[in-house]
Amino acid sequence: MSEPKTFKEGLEDVIAGESSITDVNGTEGKLIFRGYDIHDLALNSTFEEIVFLLWNDDLPNRSQLEALGDELDANRTVPAEAMRLIKQFPAGAPPMDLLRTAVSLLAFYDPDTGDNSIPANRRKAVRLTAQMGTLVAALARLSMDRPIIEPVSGKSTAWNFLYMLTGDEPDHIAEHALDVALVLHADHELNASTFAARVAVGTLSDMYSGVTAALGALAGPLHGGANVEVMHMLEQIGDPREADRFVEDALASGRKLMGIGHRVYKTLDPRAVSLRYMSRQLAESSGNRKWYDISEAVEGAAEKALAAKGKSTLKANVDFFSASVYHVLGIPTEFFTPVFAVSRISGLTAHILEQLGNNKLIRPRAIYTGPESRKVMPLVHRG
Ligand code: ACO
To answer: Does domain 16-221+341-357 fall into CATH 1.10.580.10?
Structure first.
């Protein structure tokens, strides 16, 4: 076979596999899970239905949904020995580092860790998905020096997460807002973290290694970490009237506007449409419009300034309005990216199951650009 001669920087637009889970249409701004449009799913289904959809071919019927709910309920509690170790993690460590390490150590306490069969991987997918919210809420409570709260049976992932985080039973508005956010973040084709997961398990390593690799990739500010940076930006701006000046200064000094732009979408990210709507609704129902108003002002200012630079395809992405939504829900800013993971674990495990269902090692090539034909000078002659 001839040596490869071309490459695309950042693998932009490169097709790296087949998948029947999620389709992203970047020119039309469409996101489809197994044939269902994300707006339809956000309006008419819950996060638990999406989990079933991503792991299977279709949405669940009532009894399938109840069975999944029972499985999640039975697995939400993190093993006591794992929690004992998690409590010893260093105070003040970055939340995504804490979460990545916590997920990695869960492998020690899962009886199926060494088993890569489909039924064992299905059981691990349930445990990881059920426990991600418990872990994130526990890590947030530990960071606030507050006692950990146990999950409650018969409640949704969104309800349980808010309850375990705050200690208060969430009202329907808060539960629904987080549930929709979880639906919107559940999967997104071969994004960086999902690709990392597929690369890791493509070696026939285990699901915990795949998710740990994915969480490392998700943490970065160009990917899932952007939602934290968006909140910092909104706080720095502080007033909608300052949005134009902030945007102009950022662009003039070559800084990126966080929560803006996307590798695939060349129009508005459809998830941003739903999250903008939800952010406004939460602002109105909570009586706290500040963060929505600043977000909207920054979005408008960015659109205008970027269009003037010939970059009108750069629009708000999923992280832009999720920041104000999470803030109004009382989630501490540094835990925004872990909350992304509470949802994305469903897509990650779906992709790991799909990868292992028809596995081929993922191992691309590079064009060598280093020096040629050198001879080793013995160390004694190298000075
Ligand atoms: N603000 C200002 N300019 C931008 C932005 C932005 N947010 N995003 C891209 N650009 C500009 C770049 O400076 C570059 O300009 P140039 O051609 O004059 O050098 C051009 O647009 C192309 O940008 P790249 O970074 O090369 O595009 P890429 O496809 O590699 O990156 C990315 C996509 C990482 C999302 C980028 O738009 C970005 O950094 N956005 C901000 C971070 C962010 O919000 N990330 C979350 C993405 S969604 C998710 O992962 C969950």
So the answer is: yes
